Each structure stands twice: as structure tokens, then as C-alpha cells.
Amino acid sequence: MNHDNYSDNYIRSILNTVKTIAMVGISPKENRPSYFAFKYLLDRGYRMIPVNPGQTAKPILKQKVYATLSDIPEPVDMVDIFRSSEHVLPIVEESLRLTPRPQVIWMQLTVRDDEAASLAEKVGLKVVMNRCPKIEYGRLSSEISWIGVNSRTLSSKRAQNLGTGLQRMSLGKSDKKDAR
Fold it and tell me: Is 157 domain-assigned?
């Protein structure tokens, strides 16, 4: 897998498949990127589980915070790592000990660990590095275009009007032949 370039269909297939995401390294501070990404994905219908050993005393966005991935009492489809690169390998190793294993390991912007990625891929997990699922969801659903950001997604279709207030668009269906 070329981790410097992911096809839109690869990213779309992940975001269309996962339902439960454990975010490791979430901050309870509203101005932190992890909090904003967590809230965005929660608002899009994903079951979000916060993981931060220093924040277990009170919920984040009404979600119980767990100290470790192993403490989560339900299956997780994706582990979203919001920690610096030097902390990734132990998180991936813990992820691989979960039963059942997650389907995806996702490393946030600026986070990359090729050894951890290789370890996860050897047992059949999909891996994304140096990307943000919030940004990718917004780009692929064209939500990001509403604020004037170039989504690199061309379409002749007008955005669907879903009523008043915040518009939420779907990711669409992935093309299975390119969902590597």
C-alpha cells in the first residue's frame, strides 16, 4: 500500500463501512482539533468512543471516556490515533490484541509510523496515515465546499438541499473495484 497517496474510493470505503470509532488521544478542550473531529464524526452518526487515560473522570460530549482500548466493552471498527508518531506502535499493538480486531487503523494529520502500519496490514487491517477522517468525510461528501474550500471532487450535480440549518451529505457509494 502506498501510504503517500490514497484513492478516494479507498477512503470512502472505510468511512462508509465503519460504524464505531475509538479516538485515542481526544482532548476535552473544545478548541483542540481532536475534540472538533470527534464532535463532527459523532454528529455524522458514527458511534464515537473517547480514549484518554487522563480524562476518565468525566464524559466528553456525553460519551464515557476509557483509559485504554482494552477497557472498551464493545467491538471497535476503527482506531483513530490522535497521538504523536512515537506513541503509535504501542497503540497499534494493543489494537491487534482486541477481540474482535478493528478493521482500520487511522493516524491523524502529521502522524505516521510505517512499522506500525506494516504490522497492522500483515493481519489484514486497512491503514491510513497523515489524514483526518473529519476532513476526508467533509471533502468526499462536498460539505467542505460550502465554506469555500476546494474539495478536489468534481461533480455536475447540485448539492442536495436537506432543509434549513446545517446540511449533512452522504459519502455516496464506493466503487468496489478500486476500494483497495
Answer: no
